[in-house]
């Protein structure tokens, strides 16, 4: 599995977690020994999605539009 595949999987899993959390609000969540209230946990997950988006954007090919000039 390539790095991009892994990042896409992380993003997909995190978005699924966000959907589950939004549907079943609880007073607190625990992840890796950290405890979050409901809104903090959604923010935590959103930061993970943002990180994935940044990583994916950095891997996208890009072009620089240029225009020649002849005096």
Structure description:
- This protein is mainly α.
- Helix content is 61%, strand content 11%.
- It contains 2 helices and 2 strands.
- The protein has a two-stranded antiparallel sheet.
- Strand 1 and strand 2 form a beta hairpin.
- Helix 1 packs antiparallel against helix 2.
- The mean pLDDT is 86.
List the helices and strands and how they pair.
Elements: H1 3-23, E1 28-31, E2 34-37, H2 38-59
Antiparallel strand pairs: 1-2
Helix pairs in contact: 1-2
List keywords for this structure.
mainly alpha, 71 residues, elongated, two-stranded antiparallel sheet, single chain
Low-confidence segments, given as residue ranges, are none
> Proportion of β residues?
5-15%
Q: What is the tally of beta strands?
A: 2
Overall spatial form: elongated
Q: How many whole angstroms does the radius of gyration measure? A: 19 Å
In oligomeric terms, what are we looking at? Answer: single chain
User: What's the tally of helices?
Assistant: 2
Order of helices and strands: HEEH
Name the average pLDDT.
Answer: 86
Q: Helix/strand/pairing class, anyone?
A: mainly alpha
How far do the termini sit from each other?
51 Å
**Mind summarizing the main beta sheet?**
2 strands, antiparallel
Helix content: 55-70%
């Amino acid at each position: 599995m390539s790095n991009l595949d892994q990042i896409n999987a992380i993003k997909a899993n995190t978005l699924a977690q966000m959907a589950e959390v939004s549907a079943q609000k609880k007073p607190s969540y625990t992840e890796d020994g950290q405890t979050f209230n409901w809104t903090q946990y959604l923010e935590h997950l959103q930061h993970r999605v943002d990180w994935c988006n940044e990583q994916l954007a950095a891997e996208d090919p890009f072009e620089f539009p240029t225009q020649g000039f002849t005096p």
